[in-house]
Amino acid sequence: MTTIEELIRKAREAGASDIHLIAGLAPKFRVSGALADTGEPPLSQEDCLLYAKRLAGNDWAIYEKTGELDASETIIGVRLRIHIFRTQGKPSIALRLLSESIPKLATLGLPPAALNLTGLHKGIVLVTGETGSGKSTTLAALINEINHTRYDHIVTLEDPVEYIYTPDKAAINQREVGKDTGSFAAGLRASLREDPNVILIGEMRDQETIETAITAAETGHLVFATLHTGSAADSVDRIVQVFPEGMQNQIRLQLSMTLQAVLTQQLIPKKAGGRALACEMMVVTDAVRNLIRSGNTPQISNAIMTSAAIGGQTMDQALTRLVRSGQITKDTALHFAKDADYVKKNTM
Question: Which structural domain range is residue 40 located in?
């Protein structure tokens, strides 16, 4: 059986983002968004069990009890997000390879206005997108930029801790859900007593977490968080719909006053291999605040489209720019577009 260290080394050399270990199948790497064979022999149930025990370490009892385990570890210099789960009674493993160092914000391909987000001192900034769209990397780059430029106290709540920050000008406390605190909501409530300037929430999953995040923003904290949504408008709707109907108008009002920006990301296959970042950016203007308050979220896309002067761009505008710069094909852009007619018309 190939050691886990050797598999990680091969994955890194192949430019893989993920490793999948499943009994009965050869190990798989995800490269440029697609699964690829590794040339390794199929894994037995015993192989997967040995890999799982190695990666779980002292937390193996949690997997045995619940059937799943989230963890993180650095192996041969590669930071990993680890998920072990039971499938038909057998352990399977999904490993996400993280960058060996936190990339600089300016290198990610974000809209230029995104670089200004680290200068904010209060409010909520959301980074959204599907799994594997680079949300964690963007958040880490934003937090690390603050770390290098501001004398602030940063508290992160993560499940699990992914990137490890080296404190520079900032003081940083990284708390892992399940180990350092019972839940995102509990950790977030506690963080308000920890004198933070900046709070990172790995994911806003429930009403209590969202409510506390809004309270934190209202009381002068800068809050970064993620959602699994496909647009800025979807993000607003998702937050509001978590609450009972009788509370939704109040939440719209609070959100309109605290939300500062939403970045929505997709990683798009490039012509020459690899993937390019396509990013919608909503800068919350007075017009957007009015749309949030009134529940007119379908109009948000139009408001973003007309906010180019302050750095806003829709996902379709981002895709169009990637076609014009020669990074992706027109067909690829059309496949990922929200409004295919807009992309078609603007890439002729």
Answer: 4-97
Which CATH number covers residue 116? 3.40.50.300
Whether residue 100 has pLDDT greater than 80 = no
What is the spatial distance between Cα 153 and Cα 294, in angstroms, rounded to a whole number? Answer: 35
**For residue 304, how far is the Cα from the chain centroid?**
21
| Model pLDDT for residues 147-198, shown as the tens digit of each residue | 999 999 999 999 989 899 999 999 999 999 988 999 999 999 999 999 999 9
- What residues are paired with 36 via a beta bridge? 29
User: 132 and 252: one domain?
Assistant: yes
Angle CA(302)–CA(306)–CA(310) in degrees, nearest 5? 130
What DSSP designation does 211 have?
A: H
- The number of helices, as runs of H, and strands, as runs of E, in the chain is 13, 13
C-alpha neighbours within 13 Å on the C-beta side of residue 239: 34
**The pairing of beta strand 171-176 with beta strand 123-129:** unpaired
**Kind of pairing between the strands at 123-129 and 222-227:** parallel
**Amino acid at residue number 239:** I
Residue 130 and residue 140 in contact, taking contact as beta carbons nearer than 8 Å: no
The candidate with the shortest Cα–Cα distance to 155, out of 125, 194, 124, is 194
